[in-house]
User: What shape does this take?
Amino acid sequence: MTPAQLRAILAEVEAGQLTADQALQKVKHLPFDDLGFARVDHHRQLRVGFPEVVFGEGKTAEQIVAIAERLRDAGQNVLVTRIAPDAAEALRAHMPAVAHDPVARTAILTVERPTPKVRGRILVIAAGTTDLPVAEEAARTLEAFGHPHDRLYDVGVSGLHRLMANKERLTGAEVLIVVAGMEGALPSVIGGLVDRPVIGVPTSVGYGAAFNGLAALLSMLNSCAAGVLVVNIDNGFGAAVAASMINRG
Amino acid sequence: MTPAQLRAILAEVEAGQLTADQALQKVKHLPFDDLGFARVDHHRQLRVGFPEVVFGEGKTAEQIVAIAERLRDAGQNVLVTRIAPDAAEALRAHMPAVAHDPVARTAILTVERPTPKVRGRILVIAAGTTDLPVAEEAARTLEAFGHPHDRLYDVGVSGLHRLMANKERLTGAEVLIVVAGMEGALPSVIGGLVDRPVIGVPTSVGYGAAFNGLAALLSMLNSCAAGVLVVNIDNGFGAAVAASMINRG
Amino acid sequence: MTPAQLRAILAEVEAGQLTADQALQKVKHLPFDDLGFARVDHHRQLRVGFPEVVFGEGKTAEQIVAIAERLRDAGQNVLVTRIAPDAAEALRAHMPAVAHDPVARTAILTVERPTPKVRGRILVIAAGTTDLPVAEEAARTLEAFGHPHDRLYDVGVSGLHRLMANKERLTGAEVLIVVAGMEGALPSVIGGLVDRPVIGVPTSVGYGAAFNGLAALLSMLNSCAAGVLVVNIDNGFGAAVAASMINRG
Amino acid sequence: MTPAQLRAILAEVEAGQLTADQALQKVKHLPFDDLGFARVDHHRQLRVGFPEVVFGEGKTAEQIVAIAERLRDAGQNVLVTRIAPDAAEALRAHMPAVAHDPVARTAILTVERPTPKVRGRILVIAAGTTDLPVAEEAARTLEAFGHPHDRLYDVGVSGLHRLMANKERLTGAEVLIVVAGMEGALPSVIGGLVDRPVIGVPTSVGYGAAFNGLAALLSMLNSCAAGVLVVNIDNGFGAAVAASMINRG
Amino acid sequence: MTPAQLRAILAEVEAGQLTADQALQKVKHLPFDDLGFARVDHHRQLRVGFPEVVFGEGKTAEQIVAIAERLRDAGQNVLVTRIAPDAAEALRAHMPAVAHDPVARTAILTVERPTPKVRGRILVIAAGTTDLPVAEEAARTLEAFGHPHDRLYDVGVSGLHRLMANKERLTGAEVLIVVAGMEGALPSVIGGLVDRPVIGVPTSVGYGAAFNGLAALLSMLNSCAAGVLVVNIDNGFGAAVAASMINRG
Amino acid sequence: MTPAQLRAILAEVEAGQLTADQALQKVKHLPFDDLGFARVDHHRQLRVGFPEVVFGEGKTAEQIVAIAERLRDAGQNVLVTRIAPDAAEALRAHMPAVAHDPVARTAILTVERPTPKVRGRILVIAAGTTDLPVAEEAARTLEAFGHPHDRLYDVGVSGLHRLMANKERLTGAEVLIVVAGMEGALPSVIGGLVDRPVIGVPTSVGYGAAFNGLAALLSMLNSCAAGVLVVNIDNGFGAAVAASMINRG
Amino acid sequence: MTPAQLRAILAEVEAGQLTADQALQKVKHLPFDDLGFARVDHHRQLRVGFPEVVFGEGKTAEQIVAIAERLRDAGQNVLVTRIAPDAAEALRAHMPAVAHDPVARTAILTVERPTPKVRGRILVIAAGTTDLPVAEEAARTLEAFGHPHDRLYDVGVSGLHRLMANKERLTGAEVLIVVAGMEGALPSVIGGLVDRPVIGVPTSVGYGAAFNGLAALLSMLNSCAAGVLVVNIDNGFGAAVAASMINRG
Amino acid sequence: MTPAQLRAILAEVEAGQLTADQALQKVKHLPFDDLGFARVDHHRQLRVGFPEVVFGEGKTAEQIVAIAERLRDAGQNVLVTRIAPDAAEALRAHMPAVAHDPVARTAILTVERPTPKVRGRILVIAAGTTDLPVAEEAARTLEAFGHPHDRLYDVGVSGLHRLMANKERLTGAEVLIVVAGMEGALPSVIGGLVDRPVIGVPTSVGYGAAFNGLAALLSMLNSCAAGVLVVNIDNGFGAAVAASMINRG
Assistant: This one.
C-alpha cells in the first residue's frame, strides 16, 4: 500500500463516501503478512519511504515467488535483487510482466509506475567495466523507485582525462553513486570535484590483496575528500536506496 | 572566499563599478597558497560547498596557527578538528576570538556567520555517553557550517524505550547522524523507523573484540536497514560534512 | 546408556535382583567404543548431560553409518548434524526410522523419547528468512533432546514493529536463542527487553563486509545489552545444547 | 526501584492503604532520568532482572559520580565497573560507603543487600594468575547481585592434575564462569567434564600471536565441547550477568 | 644418492678399488637436474637429511611423473604429497610399484627401504575423526622415512577420559605429533603431560570462526604448555620431517 | 597510435607534405573510444609509455573481442592478460594471428613488433614450479613490450646452492622480477646479492597460513634488503610493466 | 624437587636407611602449593622435564617474590622471564644471589647447577641486532637448564656472506634456534643448509606491515624448507624449552 | 670502502706502485666487522650499490655510536634512519659533523660527498602535510646518496587542481616517490599521468579504518594504474634506495 493509496482512502472517508468499516476492509492487512518463513511488510513504504524489496540471495525460487505474489496482491510494485537466473525464470513463469536484467541481477514488476517528487538527477558512475553489475543494480533500483538517473562508466582514476572530459556531468548531478573496485580511489577524486553528496560503493573486483573488496572499502572509508559516504561491498541496491532518499523533493 | 563574496565582486564588474583589473586585485590569490608544508585551498567552498577545514592531528601547533592565519586573512571562517589542548591554547593566543571545545576537540573562528539555505534540521544521535566526543565533533561542525541541528544522546538499543520515547524527534529530522560504538546496532534500528537519510558513525568505544571500532563499522556496513550510509570510525566531522550537503536547500 | 537406565540396573543390584556380575554384563561397554577412526562415547550423557552427537561434516557416509549403528546398538538415540543429503540417504537405507530434515541438515533416530525435567519453553528466533537453516538446526536439536520450544522468524531490527508485536512471546520464554546474520543486532535489542538468558548465534548470511559471519559475530560479542552469550558462527546445534542445559529443571 | 519495592507499593494500593495518587508520587520517576549526557535507567531491574550498572571506562569522574548519585537517590544499589583509581577516589569522597576493589576495578555501594532466589552456587575459574582481574570483576559482580559463588584459580590445562584435584568443585557448581587467556583451552576441557552451562571469558593475557585475546576468543568459539558459551574479551561483568540470569531460581 | 651410497664409493676410492675418475662417473650428476620447470635436488639427503619430496598440489600429472622418474633413476625413493587421484593414477601407470593412499593423499615408491638409526617411536595423535587426512599424511611420511610410529586417534580434549586411558602411550613416545582442528587445545594438554617434544599441527577442520584453521593455529602458538612447537595449518608432512630429525639416533 | 607513428605524421606536416586537416584525419580518434561498457584508450602509450592492455578477468568473451578489435583497428598491438581458455578461443576465431599461452593466461596480437630503446636484460626468477603461471605472465608481457628477458626458475631459498650456481645471471641483469609464494623470502636474499632494482611478486601459492599470498606479500614488504619493491599478489603483469619502465634506455 | 632428589630418597627407603614415614616427610609437599592467586607446581620437572618457570609479565613484584620463595624453599632453581626492572630489583632484595639480565629480561637463582645429559650444543642465531632481547631470553633459559649453547648474531639473509662465513657453526649444532623479525626469512635459509631441527622464533621487530611480528610468523609457518618448527612471536623462552627437550641425551 | 677507493688501490698495484702485501694492508678488513651485537658490512656498497645504513629504531645510543664509528673509521659515509632525538644527541657528541634532521629522523655524516652517475632527477611527492616525516626521510636518503631530487608536497587527490598545476614537474622526473596516507590514492592518479616508475609509500597517517597504514597499503597494491611499485608502510628510506638504484646512469 502506497502513501497515495492510503491518502485516497482516507479522503473518501472524510468525504463521507466511505464508512470506517468499509475503509477497514480496504486497509485490511496487518502491517505484515506472516508466511511462516517470512513476514511480508506492506507498510514499509509508509514508514521508510520505499516498498519492501526482496533480497534474492539465499532464498529458494519458491520463497521468492510466494513473497512476490503477496506483494503484488497488495498492490505493490515488486523489486527482487540478487536473483539467480533460474529463480528469475520461475518468477516470470508466474508473472510474465516481470522484467529481468541478468547483468544487474534484478527482477522488477511494475504494478503502478512510481512518480516521486525529486530534486534532480542521480549519476551512477563505474570505475571499470567489471564494476558494471553493481552499478547496474543501483541503476535498476533507481528505475524501480522512479528516480531520474544517468550512467557514466569506465572512468577510473588511472585515466583522469576520461573523467575530466565528463566534468560537467559530474557537477550537474544532485547525488553521485560511485562504484569502484581495486584501489577504490574514484570517490575520493570525485568528492574533491563536486559539492553534492557522493556515495561510494566498493566492489569485490580485483585480485590478490584486493581481498574481495576490502581494499576498496578501506580506501573509501579513509577518503581524504570529506563527506564521502560508503555502503557495503557490492551493495548497489543500498546506494540507490540512500540516493533516492537524498533526492526526494 | 565564499561564493557570496565572489558573486558580489562579479556583480560590481557587471555593473561597471569595478574594472576587470580591480576585480583581479580582489580575487588575487591563487586557488591555493603554498606554505611549503601545506597548500591552503581558498576556493574549496566554491568547488565543494564548504571551506577548507584544518585536520589538527599530526600537525604542530605552529603549522595549525600558520594555516589558520592564512585562512582568516583570506576572509574565511576557520574550523580546526582533532585539535590538541596545547595547540588550541596556541591558536587562541594568536586569535582570541577562537572558540575551543575540549570535548569535541574543535576550534572555531567565525569571521562571518554562515547562513546557508537549508531543507530542515539535522539530528545528531549518540548511543552512549562515551560516544559524546564524536557526536560533539559532528555537532560543532554543523554549527560552524550554519546548519540547524539537535542532539539526542544515550539512547542505545539495549534500552529501546529510551529511543521510542523520542520517536517524534527521529521522524522530524531531515538527516540523521547516528553515532555508536560497541556493536553499532543503532543505525540499523533507526534506519527502520525513518524515511530520511541515516549516516552511521562507528566509534572506537568498546573493548576486546570491538577492535577499536571495527565491530561497529562492520555492523553498520551490513545493516539490514537498506540505505544506511557509513563514514570512517570516529569521523564525526565527515558525517557532518555529508549531512550538510544533503541538507542544503 | 542413559542415567535412567543405569539407575534402574543399580536399583536391581541393591534389591538383590541382580548379582554384581550380571550387572557388569549389562554395563559391559567401556565408556567408549574404538572404531579405529573414532571412539564412540557411550557415557557422555552421564557425564555432560546429553548423548554423543555425530557432526556429519567431513565424515564419509560409511563413517556416519558405522557410528550411528554403534550408538543405536547401545540403546542411545542418534542425532547427526550437518549431514549431506547423500549421507542421510545412506543412513536411512540402514535405519528407515531416521527422520531427515534437509533444511536443518539433521538426521534423528529416536530409540526412546527423552523426557527431561525442564524449567520452561525455549524460544528460537531468526532475524531473516535466510537464517532459517541455522535456526532449524537449533530447533531440531531441542526436539531431539526433548525440550519444549517455539519458533519466531523474520523479525529483524529494521522492522521493530514485527518484533514488538511479539513481545509477550519474548518475555514468556525461559531461554532465547537468537539467530541473526548481516549486522547481528537482534540479540542486543532482545537482550534489552527480557530478563532471561539470550544466546546469540551469528550466521554467515550476508555479503561483502559481512565476511562470512564475522560482522554478526563481533556485533554480538560487543552487545551493549549485558548478559548476551555467543556461540560460533552458524552453530545452531551448540546454542541448543547450551539452552537445554540452562533449561534443565 | 526493585521489583520488591514496586510490588509493595501496589499491594498497599490494592489494600486501600494508598491512593493511586499517592502511589504515583512514590513511583514518580520516569523510567529514566535525563542527565543530558546520560539517561539513567531506573526500571532496568524490572525489565531485565538486574539494575543499571555504570561502565566506568571512558567516563569522567564527574559523570560517574553524577550517575551514581542519581541511582542511589532512587534507592538502587550502585555497581561501577572498569573504574580508574582516581574516579574511585572521587566516588568515595561523595559516598564513603562505596567499596572499591582495585584488582577487579569495581566500586560497589550497597543500599540494600539483594537476596535473589537462586538455584545453586556459581564457580569462577581462572586459568592463570594474570587472568585474576577479569575473574575478580566477575566475582565482584556476582557479589553485588547477591549470588553465592566460589573461586578456583590457576588451574590451566598445561597442569591437568591441578584441575583434576578439584573435580568435585567443578561438578558441584550450577554455572561455571571460566576465565582464560593465551590459548583459551580451559572452557573446552571443563565443558567435557560437567553437565552445567559453561561461560568462557577470553582475556587479553598473552603476547605475540595472542593478539590481545583474539586467540583465546577464537579458541572458545570453536570449542569441541558443545554448549560452551562465550562473552567478549575481558568481559567478566557480562559473564556474571549471564550467570546470574541462569542461576535465578 | 643416499649418504650410504656415497660413503661406499668413497671407501672404494680410499681402498684403491676405484680411481678418482671412475668415482666421478658414479657421482656424475650435478647436485640438481634442470628439467626447465624444476631443478631436481639429488643431494638433499646429504645436506638436510631427507630426500627431495614432491609437493603435488599445483603441479600437473606430467610434471609429477617427470620429477618422480628423475628421482627414481637416481636411485632415490619417491614421496609425493598432496597428490590428486588422477595424478596418482598417472604415476602408477608409469611406476606400478607406487603405493597410493587416498586419505593421506600420498604416493610412495620404495626403491630401497630406509633404515635410519632412531631414538624411539613417534606417536601421531589426532583430536577428531575429521583430522585423519592430515594425521595420515604425517604417518605415511614417517613410514617413507623409515621411522617407527604409532597412531592414537579421536582423543579430543572434550573427552579427557579417552585421552587419559592412553596416558602410557603418550609418555612412552620419543616425539609426539598432535593434529587438531577447531579450538586446537590438544597440544597444550598433552604438552603438560609429557617431557618429550610436542609438534602441533593445526588443521582447517571446523567452521565459522575457525577461519580455516586460524583458530587452531593461534591456539597452539599461544599454548600455556611451554615447548609446544607448531607447523603450518594441515602440514602433516612438515611435522613428520621435523619429528624424524628429532628422532634420529 | 604509437609515439613513432605520431612523430611521423607531425614530421610530414612540418615538411609541408601533409596539411593540418589531413593530419587531423589521421589522428582522428578521440583519445578514447566509448564502447558503452568501456572506453578504449588509444593514447595511453603516449601518456604512460605502454599501450592499453586488456585485463581479461571478469570480462565476457564478447567484451574482450570488441575491445581487441578496436585496438587492432587503431593500429595497436593487443595484449590480453588473465584470459580464460574459452575467451582465448573466441579471440582467435576473430583474429587467427593471436598467440595464446595457457600457462601465462595471455593472448597477444602483434601488429607491429615493438623495438623500444632499452638499458639491458630483465631477469624473471621463480622460486618454485608452482609459481610459473605468474612468472610466465611477466615474461609474456615483457615479450609483448619488446624488452629482452631471461628466465631462472625453481631456485627457492631452501636450496641456496641452486641459486648460487646462477649468481652471474643475477648480477648481469638490469632489473630482476622475483616471483615467490609460500614464505616469499627469495626477493630478500636476491636483494642482498645485486645492485639493481628487485621487484618482488608474491604469489598465492601455498596453503594454510599462506592465506592466499598474504604471507609472501608481508614478507616482501618487510624485506630486510632495502630497496625491494613489491606489486600485488600474482601480479606478474604489473611487475613487467614496472620493469620495462625502469629498463627504458 | 628434581628427579635426582626423588631417586635418592627412594633409594634410601629401599636400602632401609629411611622409613616410609620419614620419606613422606621429605616428599611432604602436595604436587602444588596453593598461594591463593597461584598454585606453585613442584613436580613439573618430574612430569615435563623442566622446573616451573615464572612468567613475569602481568604479575606484581610481590607475586613474583612470593612464588620464587616457595620454589627456592622447595629446593628448586628459579627462572623468571619477562621480568620488569623494578620487579627484578625487588627479587634481588629478597634473594641477593639472583642474576638479572636486563636485555634478556630474565632473573635466575641457581640453587643447584643442573647437569642434564645432552646430545650436543644448541646454536642461538639472531638475524639482526634488534632481535637480541629475544635471542638472549632463549640463551639465558638454556643456561638455566644447563644446556651447552653458542650465539651467532646479525646474520640476516640480506647479507648471505655473513651467514655463509659461519656455515660450519651451523652444521655443527644439534638444534638451532633462529630468531628473526621483519620478513623472518632466516629459518627458511638455514633449514635448507642443515639436517638438524630448526626452531624459528618470529620477533615483533619491524614496522608498518610487519604488524608486530605477524609477517615474520607467517613467513616461518610457510617456510619452503620442510621441517622448520615455529613458536609464538618473541617467545625465546618457549624455543629454549623445546630445544632442550630435543637435546636431552 | 667505496668502489672508487678499491679501484684506485688496484690500479696502484697494477702500476707497480703498490705491492700485493701493501694492498692487503689497505683492504685489510674482513667484509664485515664483528662487534658482537652487530656485524658491520664494509663491502655492501660494492655488492648492492649503497653503503651500510644504520636503522636506528630498537638500537641503543651506544650501539648506534659504535657502529657509526666503525663505518667512519673505514672511510664510509654514515646514514642513520629512525634515530631518536637523544641518540642523535649522543652521536653528535662523538661526531660533531653529523647533520641531524628531527623531522626526517635522520643523522648523516658525510666523509666524502658521493657523486654517482645519474639519469635524471627524482621527485618526492607527499599527499598531505602529515606525510612529511616519511617524505623527508626519503629526501634525506637521496641527499646522502648524492641523487638530485625535488619536493612537491600537499597535493592530495581531493584537490586535483593542486596536482594538475604541477603536471610538468611530474612528467619531468626520472623516478617518482609518492608518499600518501589515508586512502593512499595518489600513486594511482600519478601513475596514470607519467611514463616513469612510480614508487608508492603508504604512511600510517589517518585514523579509524586506516588501521595504521593498512588502507593506504592495500590501495597502492591494488592500483588500477599498472606499474605502481610499493614499499612498506612509512618506509621512506626503502623507497629512496630503490629510486636511486633506478636512477643510476
Chain H touches chain F at residues 47-50, 53, 191-197, 199, 217, 221-222, 225-233, 237-238, 241-242, 245-246 (CB under 8 Å). Residues 132-145 of chain H form the longest helix (14 residues).
